[in-house]
Amino acid sequence: MLEWVYPYPVKMAPLPGNLSVAYVDEGQAEQTLLFLHGLGSYLKGWRKNIDELRGQFRCIALDFPGYGKSSKGDHPYGMTLFAQTVRDFIAYMGLQNVILIGHSMGGQVAVTVAARQAPQLRKLILISPAGFETFSDTERVWIRSLYSPTLLKATPTEQLVRNFEINFHRFPEDARFMISDRMMMKGTDAYDHYCTLIPACVNSMLDEPVLNMLPTVRIPTLVIFGENDLLIPNKLMHPRLTTVAVAEAGTARLPHARLELLRPCGHFAQWEQAETVNRSIRSFVVGVSG
Length: 290
What we know:
The protein is globular. The chain has a single domain, classed as 3-Layer(aba) Sandwich (Rossmann fold), CATH 3.40.50. It starts with 10 loop residues before the first strand and ends with a helix. Helix 1 (47-53) packs across helix 11 (274-287) and helix 2 packs across helix 3 (105-114). By secondary structure, it is of the alpha/beta class. The protein has helices at residues 47-53, 79-93, 105-114, 137-146, 149-153, 157-165, 176-185, 189-207, 243-252, 269-272, 274-287, and strands spanning 11-15, 19-26, 32-36, 58-62, 98-103, 121-127, 221-226, 257-262. The longest helix is centred in the C-terminal third of the chain and has 19 residues, at 189-207. Strand 1 and strand 2 form a beta hairpin. It has an eight-stranded mixed beta sheet with strand order 1-2-4-3-5-6-7-8, sandwiched between helices.
């Protein structure tokens, strides 16, 4: 396990399927915010939100299997496994009154969980969620070709840095640790695992879409997008499509949802516009009846 420094004490949850999931648990309150990270990320990406919100809510963030400090291994990484992990984690922790918060890929996982009417969920918050944008068969083939383990492993350092920078409208220096942690992996078995994990997750996101699930999500939902998102929509596949159009179309399919657009703000909204996002989370959780 890489000796990444996490901002809070890390605990481990033994779950079915020989999984050991790393998580942090901060604050004490009746309502629980459960944070799900995005593709290639980890629970550290929620620090600015946990720091601020743990005084009012119980804040739990986990590393998906294969990510961060959670166990690695030969597992079918993807939406089905991650959604089941969330359900098993909620059961293991005995959580009730859960507000599920997902970023990017974590948003697609959160929709997968919420669409199956998990009784412990009260509300849903989707931040720059994957799954609102659709792809043709030809586009899916092209995307898969860009995410092979061999190509990922051969990515030069300059491009790795750029891949982080495009998550933001303006890359903030306090996010530099994300790059440093990734660089720490290079040349290790952990990096070999990562280069296999990411294509598996991308394939699963393409193979297990959630757009048609959105109308079945019956709980109040808040959708947050940065208007300057460079990742959604995919600029190569859909150069004429705007982030606002994707956000509005997806939100319209959710029965009890509202959309907040942030500007200037990129894909990693909960970090780049942390104060605004925290204020929106607090208002939505406290001010909307379940």
